[in-house]
Structures are given as C-alpha cells and as structure tokens.
Amino acid sequence: MPIHHVGAVLARKTSENPRRCKLNPTPQAATAAYKTEPGPHRIAVLGLSDVVGFDLAIAPQIFSGARDENGEPLYDIQVCSLDGGPISTTKGFSILPGASPDFLAAPDTLIIPGTYVEGPCTDGSLSPELAGYLAGLPGTTRIMSICTGAFVLAAAGLLDGRPATTHWAHAARFRRLYPRVELHPDVLFVDDGDVLTSAGVAAGIDLCLHVLRRDHGSEVANRAARSCVVPPWRDGGQSQFIERPLPETSGSGTAPTRAWLLERLAEPLTLDDAAAHAGMSVRTFTRRFREETGTSP
C-alpha cells in the first residue's frame, strides 16, 4: 500500500495558525484561548475501522451536553464514517454512525479517536480515501486525536515538526514510523493550537475538557466534568502509568531508604524523614527516587 502524505494540509495550517504549543497546559492558560463563532460548533468524530469504542464515545459524552446561558447547545457533534457504513471496534461490536459522510465535508473540529486501522498503525501509510479526505479539509478546521489516533495524523504529515503525544505503550513504534514528529510520551495531551493530541484512552477526557475550557471557559468545562464524575483537571502525565522494571534494591541510591520506608508504613513519616535517612537533601532524594522508580516519592 503506498504512503500518502498530506503535506499541503500541514503547510496551509501552519502558515495560517501561529504555534501555541502547550504540554498539559494549566486551566488558567486554557481559559478563553479560543472562542467559537456564534451558533453550534460542528464537531465530526471520524470512526475508522478497529476503533477503540471507549475513545469513540469520549467526545460525544463531553461536548454534547454543553449549553450556553440560554440552554442552547454549544456543539453539534456527530459520529461519522468515511463511507457511511458501520464502524468496527476492537472489542468485537460495531457502531452505526449518526450522520452521513456529508457532515465530514467542512467540520469546525475533526476528532480521530484511537484506532488500530491497518496502515497508519503498521507501516505509516494511508488509504487513498482517507488521504484524500484529510487533504481536502478546510485550513480552518481544528484537528484532534485521541490515543492512537495520532498515528493517522502523523501518517498524513499533519504532525511533522510538531509536538504530539499518543498512548505510552505505542510510543516506540510511533517514533520508528514517524521520526519527524516531536513526540512527548509522558504528558496527557498536547495543545499545538490548531492540532491537538491526547495520550492513551482516558487522557482523551482530559483533552476534551481542556478544549471545552479553551472554547467557553472553566465554568462550562467544570460543569461537564461534574456530569461525567471526573476531575476537571488532572495533574501529572501518563508517565505514572508506564510499565517499568522493578527498581534494583542495591545498597546505593534510594534503595535502602525505600526498604526502610516499607518496614514503617504505619508510621507518619515525611519526605524530610526519608531524605534524612538517605543522607540527601529533599531535592536530591526526590530526583534520585524519580530516576530509579519512574515516579515521585
């Protein structure tokens, strides 16, 4: 299968939109960063074959309930497929799209959920149909991906020279297939202005809440978060979930102190106590602990 790059889309979008890259931007940084035009903002969620069902449902769940002060919907969000047919998921069931492919023609925002579709996730290629669709998008369309949906954007050339993220478990393969992308596998999401990417699975919730906050402010985003019973903002990144080998228990570094702490779980020990036991400053102990275990003490 040939590789189809959509460099024309990338060139148009980067020239018309200044880069405003944010890695896990704070709620304050996101507020009022972007405002939609009057009327419902059209969001097309493009379901490709072997889509992750959870990822496909995130954006409709977050955006569909957003209302203005008069109770009018702020978004018109539809799930679509390129041919209008059912969308197969990775869990053995299919979903019927709620809108015809016509809705895909000129959305204000396009979202590509996580997928294991052959091509972008295997050899860096795109089908002619998908490549042609992405090439024909208006330059004003905001583009988002959730989880492995970033593979599709990268295969289209839309992430060349840009910061992005994807599921941590697929970071090595992503780097191998798309070396021109500035991958940040530790963050929950990346906001690069007109192109936004999220880390794995539930990080799509964080990205969609961020976009809702960016479009309409914290009050609307917090209301959506409460409705979904999720925190409006999560600190940290996906590095805390990355599988790592068990840290060595040698006599150097923080290993003796970690063993000492495990023997005293019932005691009200502090970070200062741990650092003192290790014979280090709190700053040095924290840094060494993170280097050895992959997480903070």
Describe the protein.
The radius of gyration is 21 Å and the shape is globular. It is of the alpha/beta class and 297 residues long. β2 (41-46), α3 (53-63) and β3 (75-80) form a beta-alpha-beta unit. α3 (53-63) runs parallel beside α7, α7 runs antiparallel to α8 and α10 (271-278) crosses α11 (282-293). The model is unreliable at 1-20 and 30-36 (pLDDT under 50). The N and C termini lie far apart (48 Å). The strands form 3 sheets. The chain has a 7-stranded mixed beta sheet, with helices on both faces. A two-stranded antiparallel sheet has the order 4-5. The chain folds into 2 domains: 7-238, 3-Layer(aba) Sandwich (Rossmann fold); 255-293. It contains 11 helices and 11 strands. Residues 255-297 form the HTH araC/xylS-type domain. Keywords: DNA-binding, Transcription, Transcription regulation. GO terms for molecular function: DNA-binding transcription factor activity; sequence-specific DNA binding. This is AraC family transcriptional regulator.
CATH topology of the largest domain: Rossmann fold
Strand order of the largest sheet: 1-10-11-7-6-2-3
Supply the CATH superfamily name of the largest domain.
Class I glutamine amidotransferase (GATase) domain
* Spans of at least 5 consecutive residues with low confidence: 1-20, 30-36
How many strand elements?
Answer: 11
The protein's oligomeric status is single chain
- What share of the residues lie within helices? 25-40%
Structural Rg: 21 Å
- Averaged pLDDT, please? 84
End-to-end gap: 48 Å
**Main beta sheet strand tally, sense and closure:** 7 strands, mixed
Domain HTH araC/xylS-type: 255-297
GO molecular function, one term: DNA-binding transcription factor activity
Protein name: AraC family transcriptional regulator
InterPro entries: Class_I_gatase-like, DJ-1/PfpI, Homeodomain-like_sf, HTH_AraC, HTH_AraC-typ_CS, INH-QAR
